Amino acid sequence: MAQKDRGHYALKHAFNKKPNQRIAKAIREKVNNGELSCSNAFKIAKELGASPAEVGLTLDLLEIPVIQCQLGLFGHRPQKRIVKAAEVISTPLEEAIHRNLVKGRLPCPAAWEIAKSLMVSKMAVSMACESLKIKICNCQLGAF
Asked: Are residues 48 and 10 part of one domain?
């Protein structure tokens, strides 16, 4: 959500959606200063056997923002976005990115899978995308 919408995350969802109480409890245990890091959201999903999307929905319904995106795209202070363009991109990385594009964009889950399969950091994938002028879309937590 855009900065102007901050604090109105639940509005992205149907009015009758209710937070999953099991996930909400885990979130409340890890929340810090009213925010939850991307990595902690994924830890919660793994610990509870929930999908990242379920954790993201619960965060939205609780009006808790996600910070410190593991791809460096949002939630970092003070500059918000910390990803920079890569100076060099390996051929396998560039090919994997292009193979996984959907309508010219790279879905977040594909970025994570590329990082895992090529044994590079998630940030390396987003930096390559930055150099290639490719946007990353479909945040697994629903933040973008």
From this structure: yes
